[in-house]
Amino acid sequence: MSIRNIILFVLGLSITFIGKSQQSGIQKIISVDFKNESLKGAIRKLSKDPDIHFSYSESLLNLEKRISLSLKGVQVSQVLDKLFNGANVSYAEVGDQIVLTRKIATRKKTGFRTLSGFISDRETGENLVGVSLFIADKHLGVTTNEYGYYMFTLPEGEYTVSINYLGYKSQQYKLLINKDQRLDLTMEVTEFELGEVVIQGQAEQDILKSTSMGQVRLTPKELGEYPAFFGEPDIVRGLQQYAGVQTVNEASNGLYVRGSPWDQTLIQLDEATVFNVSHMGGLFSVFNPDAVQNVKLYKGSMPAALGGRLSSVLDIRMKEGNKYKFSGAGGIGTLASRLFFEGPIKKGKSSFMISGRRSYLDLILKNINDEDVRSNELYFIDLNGKFNIEVNKNNRLFISGYWGRDRLELQNTFGVNWGNKNGTLRWNHIFNQNLFLNTSLLASSFDYQYTADDNNNNFKWNGRFNAYNARLDFYRFVSPRWQADFGYHINYFQFFPIKIRPLSEKSLIDPFDLTENNALEHSWYLQNDLKLSERLTASIGLRYSLFQNVGPGEIFTYEEGLPKSNATIVDTLRFDSWEKITNYHGFEPRLAINYEIDSRHALKASYIKTRQYLHAATTSSSGLPNDRWFASNFHIKPQIADQVSIGVVRKSPQKKFLGLLEIYYKYMQNQLDFRLENNALLRPNLETLFLAGKAWSYGVELSLEKTIGKTIGRLNYTLSKSQRKIDGINEGRSYSPVYDRRHDLSIQLIHRFNRRITLSNNWVYVSGRPISLPVGKYEIQGIPVIQYDNASRNKDRLRPYHRLDISLEIKGKNKKQRRWHGSWNFSLYNVYFRKNPIGHRFRNVINGDVSIDEDDPDVVVESKKFQATEIFLFRFVPSVTYNFKF
Amino acid sequence: MKKSLFNILLVFPLICALYGCEETTELKIGKNVPVLVVDGLITDDAPPYFIKLSTTTDFNDELNGKAVNDAQVRLSDNTGQEETLVLDGEGLYKISEINGIPGRTYFLEINWQGKTYTSSDLLHPVGDIDSLNYRFREESIIYDEGYFVSYFGEKSNPESINYYRWIISKNNEPQTLRSELIVDSDEFVNGLRGLEFDFPFNLNDTASVAVYSLSKPVFDYYSALFLLVNNDGGVFSVSPENPPSNITNGALGFFQASSVKSDTVIIK
User: Fold this and answer.
1) Are B233 and A841 in contact (CB < 8 Å)?
2) B6 found inside a domain
3) N or C end of chain B: which has fewer CB within 10 A?
4) Helices and strands of chain A, counted as H and E runs
5) Which residue positions in chain A have pLDDT lower than 50?
6) Closest Cα in chain A, distance from residue B193 (Å)
7) Do B178 and A772 touch (CB under 8 A)?
8) What angle do CA B227, B231, B233 make, to 5 degrees?
């Protein structure tokens, strides 16, 4: 075994197992005074310091050289640099030791070597996504990919590598790289200590160097520290606090990103598409924070691998489970309870995670002594599970799944239930040091069902949307300055919009089916991440998508030059299974650059083109599940968007604050708006209900983070405008969609009094939603009717929305021996009782009392006045949650 | 079903306590330019029928419309019959000669303040009423307590999609409240066998049901009107607009030609 190999062996081993935080022995400040001392003698003297440990073999090194050196108040490393200057010795810090090796002669032609491996959590063994590795000597940085794997190609030599990750301790390693090497690293979670760095926002180095723009990263741990609605931390609600993410009202969990409707955001859970994220009609989202490891929202530039929707991608990854020990967590809340369990299947090699959640409003109702109340059902359930198997060093398998259901049933006469089922099978394979492959097979399904069983009015109504997906994603490191990712994705969509069946012979309702709608979507992509100079990085991607509408199906043709309607149908074309109906395709270029001005400032710019072939028609009036998804066809063209953005990052001198300013402009084509008609959901030919036009939006987003100290927090502000212009709507003039909010401000603060008590708040201010106010009124058949100006759609606004939430967390005493850790969370939503309007109604108010139903035949009418009313939700919601870990 | 699901959710006591509520509000809405509103009907029942003309008012006005008494109104059909209507009451123009006949198209022409407004509607036949039934239901979250009448009738034309409006009368008083705008097509039903009206009658009430045939444009008008007057103010309600009128030149309202049939049952 050559010396080099022995050293590498030592390096490899010890680095893998001993991470070292920044304040290491090599940085210790010392003073030395050597007078004609041999190197050997100098090292022995230095070793007398209890914090300095050397590891070397005298027989391999020539330490006879004599020197004189006198230094005061310098770091150990500086002393060593001077000592070994000219000597054939080099040093590296490994764990708490300083390893001395024979210096490798600098060759004229140095070869490139690759360093690669997984980075995982030291406690749980879970792989960490998006950890940034940074080599200061070379000014190079990479991050771990979606599977926690990194690759790094470097000329042979010695390097200092630092690794940083949100919520974890930063670490530094000195590495000698002279052959291709697999280096799996682990990181440790930061526990809160007063005065220390608590949370590092977007990982320290990362944001100044990476080309990523318009990204939001969130961890459930972080989310849990802020006040939550009903005390239930919710990922979608959490994201709504960030700049550039709008909502239409507080009972809705749609994500309206940068002036786009909710269906322009692709939501993935472990890569499988989620079509509907609603629990309880939109009050909560289907993602149980216990089961989630990592959340990333791409609202601006996104890598070429991602696409399929116009505006953004929300990528949610489930936890993998602890590989070393069994543990659990849970919570008992006002509205729902959670339980989570994880542990190894084979220690250090494979693990599982299982998590469940159920709301229990109905269980409370069951105890109410009123048949009317008791006989109703209202609940939601979530189950998440994941298995993670390390087959060998180069192969890993993951199996994960989600199942969720909402059910509302009223006295056995009316019922609605809906839910998602998702499954993921994933295989990570490492071909060699430079090539990593991920293969995924995904399936997801959303379905809903209405049942009515009321005398002759009885039926069962189903809708189902399925997506099957296969992916090949390659990650290749070409050179230290060039990383190339490429791959192929195929999606198969199967939409069964509506199937209605009578429940009995005497039912009024006819059986009814809408023809299924099937489509294939292929995409190929190549993404290049390039380091163009010390300060300039670029990421250049190209995606090509091909969309095929396939049979079985029906396409109607209409008389040319006339509006499409049932009356103008000329012919019906029928297609067999897999017969090609329509093709759409196109390139989607992606470009992002980052220029690091200095260690505190960076400039960013990006351009992105996206195409969307699937669309949703929302017809429900209260977040019910009957959104109808449909694919582009002969009549409905794909949506296309172009977006440019520029941004600047600034850190304050002490790095206490991180500021990010972004400006964007987005232009969207083939935007659809609904022409309302009765039974719109039941139309086979949706093209007769849609009008297409264009939309644009632009805005400025500012986010400010304070990540150090007893009080931390963040501020997000968006100033934006979005408009649509569609022939046939608003008399062809541009108008504001409901999610056009001029100002959107959110301030969130956390103050830690001590280890046990934390107080946090959340204040939001948002401009009122656009609405159409009446211009007058009239009467038809004795019914008062509001008169609108058909050319002033959404010209007015509701009053501004603002709200303050407060939450107090009290942790139990932290006893080392005790496994059980509990904490109480008390939260208040809408502390100052603000009446935030969600809309207006116009109706006859009887006897001055809005609660009287105008049509109630038993009411004695004393006065009747046609009036405007305001409707508001959630005046004040207190909640208590007990959370635990074991 | 009368109550929308949104309202049903509000009934749950816990949610109701947390959901805020509804309060009257004063909106700052300025002066309005009055627009002509037409509310016209001709049927195959014996005349007279009335065309009601009014204008819109300011939103904060006491009155929900002002009668128009200075218009010239003419009615004609596709066989050449013609009649000039005579003002008979506030804003009411009386049709006394022309009797509606299924299969004919009726033309309305209004001249008012120098502008001409026209409209036409085809009078469709309407299917027979076979019988009316009723049953008692206890008070529940979804329904009020009372006797509920159901309708058994024939489709107007078994070969095509037909449109209907039903008007319920209680003790000979027509119930034309906003939630009783009962219009439907027979597109998704296998017949009109047991259509139940969500209106509670009491014991010994006389319950009558009249069924009107509608043309597609008038049905579309009623559908939009129903959505508009029952708009729950929520975000997902489609942006409100004036219902699509079948009258030209920017007038609001509509002109309807219908066949009508009715039946009565006494709740015992």
Assistant:
1) yes
2) no
3) C
4) 8, 55
5) 1-23, 106-108, 193-204, 621-622
6) 6
7) no
8) 155
Quote the tokens at residue A721: 């405008």
Regarding whether B232 and B138 lie in a shared domain, the answer is yes
Q: Which chain B residues are Cβ-neighbours of A510 within 8 angstroms?
A: 188-190
The DSSP symbol for A798 reads P
By DSSP bridging, strand A292-298 and strand A284-285 are: unpaired
CATH of the domain at B165: 2.60.40
Backbone phi and psi for residue A269, each to the nearest 5 degrees, phi listed first: -115, 115
Mutate to test the interface with A, among B6, B8, B24 (most CBs of A within 10 A): B24
Q: Which chain B residues touch A378 with a CB distance below 8 Å?
A: 12
Q: Which pair of tokens denotes residue B50?
A: 């009335």
| Residues A787, B234: C-beta atoms closer than 8 Å | no
Q: Which among B27, B64, B165 is the top mutation candidate for probing chain A, defined by the most A β-carbons within 10 Å of its own β-carbon?
A: B64
Closest residue to A794, CB basis, from B21, B225, B239: B239
Residues 184-243 of B with CB under 8 A from A: 185, 187-196, 200, 219-220, 223-225, 227-229, 231-242
Instruction: With beta carbons under 8 A apart, name residues in chain A contacting B203.
Output: none
The end-to-end CA distance of chain A, in Å, is 47
Distance from CA of B77 to the nearest CA of A (A): 24
Distance from CA of A257 to the nearest CA of B (A): 17
Residue with tokens 């809309």: A839
Q: Could you tell me the pTM of the whole model?
A: 0.83
Which tokens belong to A155? 């000329």
d(CA B107, CA B117): 11
Contacts of B26 in chain A (CB under 8 A): 868
B148 and B236, same domain (yes or no): yes
Q: CA of B195: how far to CAs of A654, B42, B209, in Å?
A: 74, 26, 12
Residue B223 Cα, gap to closest chain A Cα (Å): 6
Determine the structural domain holding residue B74 and report its residue range. Answer: 36-122
Distances (CA, A) of A155 to A112, A554, A719, B186, B197: 4, 60, 46, 77, 82
Q: SS3 for A669?
A: strand
Assess contact for A720 and A741: CB atoms under 8 A: yes
Residue B251 included in any domain: no
> Cβ contacts (< 8 Å) between B228 and chain A: which residues?
785-786
**Residue A503 resides in a domain:** no
- Residues A240, A200 within the same domain: no
Residues from chain A contacting residue B35 (CB–CB below 8 Å) = 776, 778, 787
pLDDT tens digits, A605-615: 999 999 999 99
Question: How many Å apart are CA A622 and CA A249, to the nearest integer?
Answer: 11
Any domain includes A441: no
Per-residue pLDDT of A439-496, as tens digits, reads 999 999 999 998 888 777 788 989 999 999 999 999 998 877 888 999 999 999 999 8
d(CA A309, CA A274): 13
- Mean pLDDT for all residues in chain B: 86
Question: Which residues in chain A touch residue B223, judged by CB atoms under 8 angstroms apart?
Answer: 677-678
Q: What are phi and psi of B6, to 5 degrees?
A: -55, -45
Residue A148's region, left for phi above 0, alpha for psi from -120 to 50, else beta, is left
